[in-house]
Amino acid sequence: LGGLILTGGVDLSLGSLVALTGVVAARYGGMPLPLAIAMGVMAGAAFGAASGAAITLGRVAPFVATLGMMTIARGLALWLSDGKPVTGLSPAFKAIGENVAGIPIPVLLLVGVSAAASVFLIRTRPGRHVYAVGGNERAALAAGIRVRRVKMMAYIICGALAGLAGVVQAARNTVGQPNAGIGYELDAIAAVVIGGTSLSGGVGSIGGTL
After folding, report:
1. Which of 43, 110, 188, 209 is the most exposed place for a label (fewest CB within 10 A)?
2. 35: part of which helix (H) or strand (E)?
3. Which residues pair with 103 in a beta bridge?
4. Cβ atoms within 10 A of the Cβ of 146, count?
5. 3-state DSSP: the chain helix, strand, coil percent, rounded to 5?
6. Based on C-alpha coordinates, what's the Rg of the chain?
7. pTM attached to this predicted model
8. pLDDT digits (tens, 9 = 90+) for 137-172
9. Which strand (E) or helix (H) includes residue 67?
10. Bridge partners of 86?
11. Average pLDDT of the residues in 79-104
12. Contacts of 108 (CB under 8 A, 6+ apart)
């Protein structure tokens, strides 16, 4: 979410996406682990792309578009799960929520994703474009940066990472819970802002959020 807010956007659907992607991954939880993880992450990325398209192409305000997506994702999670926790996860899937050498695997994933995101934003051209779009969108456009593409990328990545979070939570809970993630979007936004990222975009870091 930090990278998305750096562009001047926001995503209120994250909590619902965690629930939806957890349910989706759990429905494939008895199948090979890479497939289950991929289904959860791709579901999150697809919803992120839908939000991004509504905002960049439909010119809908980010608050409105993602608020609507929050309701859609939650409703879909309840529909797919028939309002009940989805069980039947394989031991390999459940292992995602366990420990390695006394360190929880979710913590290791958090550190890895945070490090990769930080390097992406600071050391790569697309990452610098994120800062440029958030700092001054008109100037970025005049400089030849494809603003819509940058924003779409930010929403897709944000959705995919929400999908990963949904997979991890399903593994820790050993079920896909359609009521999971309630209020997570507010916690995420608070962490990003308290960590020094400006809600108007262009200023902030992954380290501050972490």
Report:
1. 110
2. helix 33-56
3. 100
4. 13
5. 70, 5, 25
6. 17
7. 0.93
8. 999 999 999 999 999 999 999 999 999 999 999 999
9. helix 62-81
10. 176
11. 91
12. 100
